[in-house]
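Quick one: structure for this chain?
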Amino acid sequence: MPGLRIGIFGGTFDPPHLGHLILAQEARYRLDLEQILFVLTPQPPHKQGAPITPVKMRLEMLTSALHDEPAFVLSRVDLDRQPPHYAADTVKLIRQGISGQTLVYLMGADSLRDLPNWHRPEEFVASCDVIGVMCRPDSGVDMSALEAILPGLTGKVMFIDAPLLEISSSDLRRRIASGEPYRFYLPEGVWKIIQSKRLYAG
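Got it. Here's what it folds into:
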């Protein structure tokens, strides 16, 4: 069915938390997306050498987090190919599989500011129909400076006035390791997996 608007939400999801789901749902509503593809990155190029939970465990957690929302779909585009996994290649591969649909790549304001430092950023911008940026209005993104570096970017960016959520995977890992409360930051299934496998324990 051509003409659908498909969101792409990539990340390490270590672990996937309610903030991810809330932002994805907000983006789906604000940008009129038919579905959102969650792209689990096995080993992000910008996190080489950083400790990361084995991809099998992250896949199990993300599958659990998405299971009861039909519009949230797990994409294996990066799981089923060899690294490195660059966003420009990811979007091109997704387009090959669902040609004729509008692809909306979702990111935060920090990622947008850092976009000139991405691998082949011009190709990435060209590969996206829309770049949906989930941030607060006061995020301070200098679009003029970014446009000067990446011509055509401004015409593709759509800002989403996303809720301010003080939830991050890194903070959750810290909380779990230090014995602080974390239960209600997570979908129930993800919490149960972390509990049963003793993930992130100090």
